[in-house]
Amino acid sequence: MIKINLLKKKFLEVFLIFVSILFSYLLLEIGYRAYLWHHYVTEAVGPVVVIDIPDPSGSSLTENDNIYGSRPRNAKIKYKRFLTGGLSSEHFVKTNNLGWVSHYDYAREKSSSEFRIAVVGASLAACVTNSIPWPDVVQRHLNTDTDLLDKLGVKKISVINISTPGASLEHMSKILAPIAARFSPDLTFVNFHVTNLEGRCANVVNTQKPKVYKLTPPFSFKVKGIEVPLICKSGPKELSNPACKVSNTWVAPQGQDLDKIDWTEVKKDVARKLLWHRLILSTKPTLLLELIGRPVIKRPNVEENGQTGPFRLFWNKLVFSVERLLLSEVFIKSALAAQNTKKLLDSLPEKTQEDIHAGVNALTAIGRLNPHTMYAHNSLLFHLNKADPKGIKLQNAFIESAKQEKINIINMDDYLPTERGDLEWEKWYMPDGHFSDYGAEVYGKAVAEVIREFLLKNLELSKEPSVSSVCNPLSLEFARGKEIVEKGDLSSALAVFSNILKIYEEKLALLPKHKPLQCHCIFELYRERASLFEKLKEPEKALADLEAALKLIPNSAQTYSQRAYLFLMMGKWPESISDYIKALEITPLQERGPIYFYRSTAHFHLKDYRSAIEDFNKLLENDPKNISILNLRASAYRELGLLKDALADYNTILDIDPRNESAEKSHKEITKKLKEKEHDLKK
């Protein structure tokens, strides 16, 4: 009996403790819900960005052979940020001629003097939350590096930003990377964050007439005419779904004056709609879910300084510190080694494993489109301040999984000035986690350094020079030499041309004999230098250059003609005629006139008047009233004693030009000779 009473007493004590704990939790739950309601509905805490666009429609990214962005072209889109207490700030996003976010216009065709880099990414690269796109910063920094430009053999480096907010890695591989490939980039730079692993892309290309693309997500709800997007990872697109969160970027109706709207009231109305489902009607333990990292409000503690709220930040750091004690960095690294990567992946939730697998496949697909591809992981503030240990683990797991497929992912943390500390990091990001203008400058500079290292390393590893790396700078120097020729400074031009040939020969020496390298500018240079030698009265050197040009392009009619003319000027008539014959064989009929003319001159000098007459006949077929040619043919007839034929040509000349004194004089001379002959015959 005593035992039963003791058991009852113990049970009562346990029951009272349980009830006390439950009651205490209920009080905390009510208090936490009241805090959230007050935080969002009463105080309207939290930043909101509203888009004010002149034209809400743009191109469809999935249109066949599309190169246009989804935003209006050549637009200046206003983004206004509304903070707690009615404070606000605004910035403008500039779109270029093709509807991509950039201050630079793009052209589909790449020039020969351009090295082109395509950036493929999501919102962190799209740069719509600030006014400075970091890909533009990359372009600016790379183009100030004259050493890099020289080594690439180009005049400029273009960075084309093919990025759009909300893109997953699958979207990047199936939609954005193919668009980037249409710009013929020399290098593709994939910029992503592990949050981009989520999301699938079924529709790749729409060959039918696409629908007009709207700058609003597939699902949104309206509050006082404002489109409020709802982003859902899974499940129904409803406010009651914990997998959905309200985007902090809203779209204003076209033509709406943003300054006349009471944004505090709009924010409160949005919060009421959301919290009514998530707090008032919810039976889920809100506080407990928050503590274990599965909050029913996806952004419950995000403050306007870009950090996670103090309570959440403290909790995350505590959890991370405990995990660091339980799992030392050495253990974590070893667990992520190749032989243990599979075990690590097996320990992750099935959905996360699918995301990692899909992400690796997406990066592989992008690499197939362009073998020269870089992959960079772009950390967010909560990675830098260790506020998201799960995200850091996912990042490491994904990087190691990619390594198994020989995909090297660059961790951009290694290139950012992270040693400056928390206060500096906070300046890099906006309240929504994207880059500020200052952060875009910092990140753009870091990316430029990463790309520069990559390019210089690959240039160093490639001992065999490429055609573009050799020929482009030589072409530029050749153009400079020709400008000097036009100014009349032949000696300086000759020095430039000779230096180009020296560099070219040095580059050739680096190549195996079975891999010849031919720059068209070198062929042109030999011909140009031959002309200079001719003007400088050095015909033998000119002949040597023309011989070199013919070795590069054996069937060049222009080169044969040039050498034939040089032989003509040197008095080497047979050699001149031989080259003119070769030139005629490969010259179109309508372009043979000059060759016939100069060859006839060589025939004349050899006193081969009949051959000269044949050339004159060819010329007169196309131009029967050419007085100069008629006069030359008449002279050839006279040399052969064919006076009647000569007289006929002079008659033709006088019909064309009755006042031609030379023809009239020759006509009288021949007429007189013919009469004398006729008189002699009568005797």
What's the helix and strand layout?
Layout: H1 2-42, E1 48-52, E2 57-58, E3 76-82, E4 88-94, E5 114-121, H2 123-126, H3 134-143, H4 146-152, E6 156-163, H5 169-181, E7 187-192, E8 213-214, E9 220-223, E10 226-232, E11 244-246, E12 249-251, H6 263-280, H7 286-291, H8 310-326, H9 329-335, H10 338-347, H11 350-369, E13 373-377, H12 381-384, H13 389-404, E14 409-411, H14 422-428, H15 437-461, H16 467-486, H17 490-509, H18 520-535, H19 539-552, H20 557-570, H21 573-585, H22 593-605, H23 609-622, H24 627-640, H25 643-656, H26 661-682
Parallel strand pairs: 1-12, 5-6, 5-7, 7-13, 13-14
Antiparallel strand pairs: 1-3, 2-8, 3-4, 9-10, 10-11
Helix pairs in contact: 1-6, 3-15, 5-11, 10-13, 11-13, 16-17, 16-18, 17-18, 18-19, 19-20, 20-21, 21-22, 22-23, 23-24, 24-25, 25-26
Description:
Helix 3 (134-143) crosses helix 15 and helix 11 (350-369) packs across helix 13 (389-404). The radius of gyration is 40 Å and the shape is elongated. With 683 residues, the chain is α/β, with parallel strands linked by helices. Helices cover 55% and strands 10% of the residues. It has 26 helices and 14 strands. The strands form 4 sheets. Strands 6-5-7-13-14 form a 5-stranded parallel beta sheet, sandwiched between helices. It has a 4-stranded mixed beta sheet with strand order 4-3-1-12. The chain has a 3-stranded antiparallel beta sheet with strand order 9-10-11. It has a domain at 49-213 and 314-461: Rossmann fold, CATH 3.40.50. Mean pLDDT is 78; it is low at 202-217, 299-311 and 323-339.
